């Protein structure tokens, strides 16, 4: 598959979605505020990074699947820059 996909938020909805992307052969870079949630993706070959900004820098497109507006705001490189 061409291009790396970023995924931020690996909870009840995000984890199954990200796992499906890996199963389909996508290169994946991931981040979650709970470090324990990245293990299943790391085990399947996803690159784990320490911040949403690192996801955005490493990916051609990014999917954000978080619970709250505050988490979504922290996941946006635009809001981090302001």
Structure characterization notes:
Helix content is 40%, strand content 20%. The chain is α/β, with parallel strands linked by helices and 82 residues long. It has one domain: 3-Layer(aba) Sandwich (Rossmann fold), CATH 3.40.50.720. A 4-stranded parallel β-sheet has the order 3-2-1-4, with helices on both faces. The mean pLDDT is 88.
What tags apply to this protein structure?
82 residues; alpha/beta; Rossmann fold; four-stranded parallel beta sheet; globular
SSE arrangement, N to C = EHEHEHEHH
Taking all residues together, what is the mean pLDDT?
Answer: 88
Shape: globular
- Helix and strand content put the structural class at alpha/beta
For the record, the CATH class is: Alpha Beta
CATH architectural type: 3-Layer(aba) Sandwich
Ends: how far apart? 34 Å
Fraction of residues in helices?
A: 40-55%
Low-pLDDT residue intervals, each spanning 5 or more residues: none
Helix count, DSSP H or I runs of 4 or more residues:
5
CATH superfamily: NAD(P)-binding Rossmann-like Domain
The main sheet orders its strands as 3-2-1-4
């Amino acid at each position: 598959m061409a291009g790396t996909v970023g995924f931020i938020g690996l909870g009840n909805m995000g984890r199954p979605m990200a796992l499906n992307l890996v199963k389909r052969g996508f290169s994946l870079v991931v981040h979650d505020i709970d470090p324990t949630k990245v293990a299943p993706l790391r085990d399947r070959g996803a690159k784990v990074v320490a911040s949403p900004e690192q996801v955005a820098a490493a990916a051609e497109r990014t999917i954000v699947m978080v619970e709250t507006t505050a988490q979504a705001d922290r996941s946006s490189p635009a809001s981090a820059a302001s």
